[in-house]
Amino acid sequence: MNERRVPEALIGVYVATVLGPAVALWGHGTDRISLLGAAAVAAGAGALAVLAARSVEDLPARLASLRVAAVTVLPPLSYLPYMVLSTAPESTPALLSVVGLLAVVPGVFVPVSGAVVRSRRLRAGATELAVVTVGDDSDGGDGDDNDGRNLQVVAAATVAALSVVGFGAFVLFVGEPGSGTFVTTMGGLSTTLLLLADDDGTELAVTDAGLRIERTITAWDDFQGYRVTDDSVQFVRPQWYLPARSFEREKISDEDALLDGVSEFLPRLDEQGRVEMTARRGERVA
């Protein structure tokens, strides 16, 4: 199966799941369309969305952005107040709002799937210049049958999305909006899943396309630069909301090889980097 078909299919499911309940709610209030008719409209809209997605050049790269995540995750949340404030939890409008809220799940996966496909394409065409390990790599697999960090991010994102949906359903059917047990439990599980993405046993590779961390490649253009502290090597992103990716220096198998390779593509942002840049400028002037 063409890997591009996965994001396209998710877009179709998302559009159908968001639009269908809205059309059904409108039909329920006006008696102008039945539930079956609303389902047909949703299916048609989903199919059109897939066709439109197929016409977009480099779709995975366009989907892998925070802006797309906001566009796909926020609209389904508009069903949440309607669901919570419904006076009859077992009514058709309330159940339709639950279905609409479930669109947050494919909404999360749309940008995630784009990022996964983009990373795979970069990895397929990349030439590795230096490969090091961070921590104990004795339990690392060959990676061909799993995507390591990608799967962990997908799992954590899914748990976060289902937390929103589950809490809304909990409030709707149990009627205890003050209870924080469910949210606390799911939030803790999300944190645990993210912590699984540790540096132990991680393989880093400097490639001409970007920095590969296990099976995931981040393009060099996505980094602002790198810095070396007493304890870690940090890869800095220009976006304020994305923290630097850090690796403990004492766990890097060959720090010199890593830094020599990275310096070909990224500027060094710490004091040593400024000193080296000043020295190079002085040499050019002389």
Note down, in words, how this protein is organized.
The structure is a single chain. A 4-stranded antiparallel sheet has the order 1-2-3-4. Strands 5-6-7 form a 3-stranded antiparallel sheet, with no helix packed on it. It has 2 domains: 125 residues, no CATH class; 84 residues, no CATH class. By secondary structure, the protein is of the alpha+beta class. Helix 1 runs antiparallel to helix 7, helix 4 packs antiparallel against helix 7 and helix 5 runs antiparallel to helix 6.
Low-confidence stretches: 138-149, 167-200
**Approximately how much helix is present in the residues?**
55-70%
Domain count? 2
**What is the percentage of strand-forming residues?**
5-15%
Characteristics of this structure?
2 domains; 57% helix; 286 residues; alpha+beta; 12% strand; three-stranded antiparallel beta sheet
Strands, helices and their partners?
Blueprint: H1 5-30, H2 35-54, H3 59-63, H4 66-73, H5 79-85, H6 92-101, H7 104-125, E1 128-134, H8 149-174, H9 181-195, E2 202-207, E3 210-213, E4 216-219, E5 225-228, E6 232-236, E7 245-248, H10 255-262, H11 271-285
Antiparallel strand pairs: 1-2, 2-3, 3-4, 5-6, 6-7
Helix pairs in contact: 1-2, 1-6, 1-7, 4-7, 5-6, 5-8, 7-8, 8-9
Short summary:
The chain is α+β, with helices and mostly antiparallel strands and 286 residues long.
